[in-house]
Design brief:
It is a single chain. 57% of the residues lie in helices and 13% in strands. By secondary structure, the protein is an alpha/beta fold. The strands form two sheets. The protein has a five-stranded parallel beta sheet with strand order 3-2-1-4-5, sandwiched between helices. A two-stranded antiparallel sheet has the order 6-7.
Length: 226
């Protein structure tokens, strides 16, 4: 029951975030046009202008670029490949992980996420791309913080400190910082996602995922998780 409820909440959260953003813009706009002084009207309209600019392709690309390219640092060869799930894109993400493993067959592949890890494991096993003995499942995490903490618990007994981290462009900065926050050295690897609006690409219109990631960066920073 609780898993079903959590899944339903996860499905509707992006829509709720987008609706909340629209409501905020409308509130700012109404407040601005009802001010008596012209100067205050322009001041109140400033957030609306900023949001509008960021929703245009150049502004959106800037926001995505800032999220997608955290600095990489490994003091030696990577010791594990860690893959974070993202819903319907899990098959392609597992395929990228398999390609990475072919280059480093001595390291384990860690699949992290409550639902996503099991789906990616099924894909890897059915495709015979990665042996079962090299797959480590972390099926309990529901957030990026839990991805990092629970993966740390899995890999610490193995003496693994340096990882390749696979996630999508929007999620990469927060994921990298979260994993570094629990003691890993991280080499981020981007998995291009499939957007419903622009197909396979790195550029997509501003959406709730971008909003979610920037809100998450602030929240994680305030909690001291980086």
């Amino acid at each position: 029951m609780w898993l079903t409820l959590a899944r339903n909440v996860n499905d509707i959260l992006p829509a709720l975030l987008w609706i909340a953003s629209l409501v905020l813009v409308l509130v700012c706009l109404v407040w601005g046009v009802t001010r008596v002084r012209q100067g205050l009207r322009w001041l109140a309209a400033l957030p609306v202008v900023i949001v509008a600019v960021l929703c245009l392709p150049p502004g959106t690309q800037l926001l995505r670029t800032l999220l997608a390219h955290p600095p990489a640092y490994l003091s030696g060869p990577s010791q594990a490949i860690v893959v974070l799930g993202r819903g319907s894109d899990n098959g392609r993400r597992a395929e990228i992980a398999a390609n990475l493993w072919q280059e480093r067959p001595e390291v384990p592949v860690v699949l992290s996420g409550t639902w996503d890890s099991l789906r990616m494991a099924e894909w890897l096993k059915s495709s015979s791309r990665v042996p079962s003995a090299k797959i480590i499942l972390e099926p309990d995490s529901r957030t990026t913080r839990e991805n990092a903490v629970l993966t740390r618990q899995k890999l610490a007994p193995l003496g693994i400190e340096r990882i390749v981290l696979l996630s999508d462009p929007e999620h990469m900065l927060r994921a990298t910082l979260a994993f570094r926050g629990v003691g890993f050295e991280v080499q981020p690897i981007i998995a291009p996602e499939v957007s419903l609006l622009c197909g396979q690409c790195y550029i997509a219109p501003f959406n709730s995922i971008l909003a979610h990631e920037y809100i998450g960066l602030v929240a994680y920073g305030l909690r001291g998780w980086f």
